[in-house]
Write a structure and sequence with these properties.
It comes from Pseudovibrio japonicus. The protein is of the alpha+beta class. It folds into 2 domains: 77 residues, Alpha-Beta Plaits, CATH 3.30.70.260; 88 residues, ACT domain (Alpha-Beta Plaits). Helix content is 30%, strand content 44%. It has 5 helices and 8 strands. It has a 4-stranded antiparallel sheet with strand order 2-3-1-4. Strands 6-7-5-8 form a 4-stranded antiparallel sheet. β2 and β3 form a beta hairpin. It is flat and about 55 Å long.
Length: 177
């Protein structure tokens, strides 16, 4: 029988970090399933999902924890195999002048609608014309079956003017074609 583990990883960025983690995973006959890893402000951070035989899980966890000695902080979480949220996938794009609270306001609207955020990537960068800092976010969301994408768009548009953001919502199936 196999366990699924989710590893959270943080370290000062340097070459070889993925190799350090993946070697421990492979040495314990675990399978690296998927991951999202990136450099953020000089830090290496990410999430990795692995499958491991139940009888090897404790040894794998112990070995991963020992990577702390080389500067890797790894959190180990047993994956809850609960059902994924049902509904239609959509892509949400947000663009506006950077200001505090943007993600909080948008995510609050989504939570009130029972919309689940599957992935979220954001970036602050200088605008092309003005040089003002621009906030960009891209999310893959799951809209519950009882709701339409138009309902979600309408709710987000209600806060867009206040936040001075452009909001675009597209069907994920159409966007991926």
């Amino acid at each position: 029988m196999k366990k699924e583990l989710v590893l959270t990883v943080v370290a000062d960025d340097r070459p070889g970090l993925v190799g350090d983690i993946s070697k421990v995973v492979a040495d314990h006959k675990a399978n690296w399933i998927d991951s999202s890893l990136s450099r953020l402000g000089g830090q290496f951070a990410g999430i990795v999902r692995v499958h491991v035989e139940t009888e090897r899980a404790e040894d794998l966890s112990t070995a991963l924890t020992k990577l702390d000695s080389i500067g890797l902080t790894i959190g180990i979480h047993e994956l809850d195999t609960g059902e994924a949220p049902a509904g239609a996938f959509a892509l949400l794009h947000i663009l506006g002048q950077d200001q505090p609270g943007m993600i909080s306001r948008v995510s609050s609207v989504l939570a009130d609608l029972h919309v689940s955020i599957e992935t979220l990537e954001s970036l602050v960068e200088p605008g092309s014309m003005s040089g003002d800092l621009m906030f960009r976010a891209n999310a893959r969301i799951v809209i519950p079956p009882h709701m339409s994408p138009a309902d979600v768009s309408e709710a987000l548009e209600a806060i867009a003017t206040d936040l001075m953001i452009d909001v675009e919502l597209t069907d994920a199936a159409i966007a991926e074609d």
